[in-house]
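Per reviewer request, we include the raw input and output of the structure prediction for the construct analysed in the revised manuscript.
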Amino acid sequence: MQAKAAKESHSSAYTKQEYTPDNIFQLGPNEVFVFGSSIEGNHTGGAAYVAFKKFGAVRGRGNGMQGNSYAIPTRNVGLDKVKRYVNEFIEFAKKNPGLKFYVTRLGCGSAGYKDEDIAPLFSAVAGLENVILPESFAKLLEPKFPFDVAAFEDVINWTLPGLQFFYRDTNIDADLDGLAQAYRNKKIIRAGFFIDCTSRAAKPVKNVRFIIASAHAAPIWEVMGDPEIEQWRLNVLDYNSYFKVMDTYRVGSQLQILLLHIPLKGISVFANMENINLGEDMDLVKIARKSFNDKSAMAPFPWLETEAWAKRTELLPGTSSDGWADLDPVLPVNAEVANLHNAILKMSHDDTRLNLPD
């Protein structure tokens, strides 16, 4: 990171959290300084002046990308309009994953707002690895006690009880370390397509294994009456399923990626959590790594080496034809997809308000 001197925090339950530095002196070529502006784009004071002097902000332009900076109008602008401009910025950040955005405490200087006013406007950046918030915003967005304990319990009770491992192996022609880093950077992914996986534990013979910890996979194999599908032990996860990337484990020429299936409304709870550790017998990362080591000593399962199964598992969870799948849930594109979507949600006991957007 080129931006100087970012603060970091760390605890046993959370990954290192990067914050926007209090003062930024320089940026890398793909880094962007996000500041609060007047709608007129005067850029005469505070972070706006820094953006003008150092990072390419243009006077007369009060909104959007300019040089290595992005202006969000906050001065003499009502909070409802600030929210609209923030939403526009978030959409821009989603469409430009190759840029890294350092958000300043915009609106909290001469514009007269408090951190408590502005921070909630950025709640939708959870899971966006390319948007860095100031520490004061990030701390306000972290789940804390006391909060809606019932809602928190709903998320935990959706995620953990009945948790089991499902497997999806594929061969890819790519740098495995780079792939691992890409998934770690994402933190949260949306499936992007119906994910076929198996409950059969077998030797990993391809170079990438996705081990998916889920309590809400639809056991399609139990109802299809198809011998091949029964041998596969085919389970399916909905295309709007969300996953926390918990671990990447490289062993020789193979990589295992551990995904924890979470609900949409659990993103803020799990976004920065690095493990589920409830004691020696419930250390999720340790169990998943042991699973890989143990399964590597097993014999391959022939039904999972067929061309038909390989075709079903060739895509990488969280991706689409345009790259990474957007985190926003999407509606079914036609009646056939809608019927499958609804059937999977019902079979997996996933038809819940926890996966409905606000």
